[in-house]
Amino acid sequence: MAFQNPRDRRMPNRPSDGTRTNEDIRISPIRLVKEDGEAVIIETSKALQMAKDAGLDLVEVSPNAKPPVCRIINYGKYKFEQLKKAKAAKAKQHVVKLKEIKMHPKTATNDYQYRIKQAGEFLQDGMKVKLIMQFRGREMAHMDYGKRLMEQAKIDLAPYGDLEMDSRVEGNTMLSIYGPKRGAGAAKKQDQAPKPVTEPKAAGEAST
């Protein structure tokens, strides 16, 4: 029984992920980067044979270069390292969460203070806050009450966040968005809680 010379075998190509490897690299010549960092221009067939002899893969790492840049490496290990780097980069990305705080025009003073306290804590934790004023039924005819609370919130949340979107009406709601101040969350002290600067008047206390 005749045995095939391993030097003459066709190297198996890896699952397609857009990276050309081994016999899929048909452009010749290529720029081959060696282990010591030296780069040489070489015929693809010769580089492929070098990879076969080493039991490794010829991998195209920079296809848009002229000529394309390739390396002789363990492709499986190469892909593992690439995925590892991608996961590490994703983990470093700071995803800003958006928290919603809902109120009504007739929200009592103590309820208002509680919601502002919540909003301030979210902002200090590095989150964004969407402040929502909901109007029900006849309350739509007295939107100035809700507007008054939204304006008060600007004052009370100013120490903890920046106004990114001023109050605007969408259907039966009025909303605004606040973002955390730069560095928010890093310098937050234990059990620190924001307090409103002033107490707003309840809807029924509006001056005539």
Short key terms for the protein model shown above:
single chain, 208 residues, alpha/beta, Ubiquitin-like (UB roll), Translation Initiation Factor IF3, 2 domains, 4-stranded mixed beta sheet, 29% helix, rod-shaped
Describe the structure.
The chain is α/β, with parallel strands linked by helices. The protein has 2 domains: 6-87, Translation initiation factor 3 (IF-3), N-terminal domain (Ubiquitin-like (UB roll), Roll); 98-202, Translation Initiation Factor IF3. 29% of the residues lie in helices and 24% in strands. The protein is built from 4 helices and 8 strands. The protein has helices at 44-54, 75-92, 109-124, 143-157, and strands spanning 30-33, 39-42, 57-62, 69-73, 98-103, 128-134, 161-170, 173-180. The chain has a 4-stranded mixed sheet. It has a 4-stranded mixed sheet with strand order 5-6-8-7, with helices on one face. Strand 7 (161-170) and strand 8 form a beta hairpin. Helix 3 (109-124) crosses helix 4 (143-157). The relative contact order is 0.12.
